[in-house]
Amino acid sequence: MASNMFIKIALWLVLALCFFLFLITSAKAELQRFEHPISTETKNDEPLSLSFLVIGDWGRRGAFNQSQLTSQMTQHLKNHFSKSTQQRACKSSAEIFFVDTTPFVKCTSAMQRVILMIGEQDLESAFKESMAKWKIVVGHHAIRSIGHHGDTQELIRHILPLLKTYDVDFYMNGHDHCLEHISDRESPIQFLTSGAGSKAWRGNIKEENGDGLNFFYDGQGFMSVKLTQFEAEIKFYDVHGKVLHGWNKIKQPRHSSV
């Protein structure tokens, strides 16, 4: 009996030590950073730009119109993406922050709450260091949505205040199998859902979450993003490549008073 108790105590001590070491490692670890080269090929004196596609719920084996969607994405890539180099002509124009939102949604223990606190601190530190003109946060779960899952209250409590404080421009997510554009009423943040890369047409709409809604589409599609130093262009496409919704934002250059 005493031997079993000793083994249990030893296991708890090992687990506690591992968790302590994890906290120390997490606190010292730096967030990973990756650079995306800027397009240096322009037409008609267009400004240098950064372009990418946003697609969620990517199906398998061509199911749920995946093949048709892939074809349209390829056409869009041909039209808007060009060869690029490592030239950093638009350094600090845009920065994308990837957040693992699952722990926020499924936080059930004291240990998980500590991990979340560290995650929030890391995100805030990254925001403080950022000099980018465009700040984009990407997570799996929606902050705002009228789709099947609706608003995510945990992210509204923990993440949204940071986005507002540090002037984040866009929050992009999947999770709901639809396309959405919702504007925040209290800040410039735009909530963009692109989770319609495969299975869609769920038919479950939470109309009570419609405050600030600009666009909603329940079918398959994807989203494109094009950024220049002072302008952002967002477009939503259906499975046939038709533009369903477009939105532009222009940031005025900051002029020095000196």
Automatic annotation (TrEMBL):
The keyword Mitochondrion does not apply. The keyword Lyase does not apply. Pfam families: Metallophos. Transmembrane segments: none annotated. Residues 124-178 form the Calcineurin-like phosphoesterase domain. InterPro entries: Calcineurin-like_PHP, Metallo-depent_PP-like, Metallophosphoesterase_PAP. Keywords: Hydrolase, Signal. One of its GO terms (molecular function) is hydrolase activity. Residues 1-29 form the signal peptide. This is Calcineurin-like phosphoesterase domain-containing protein.
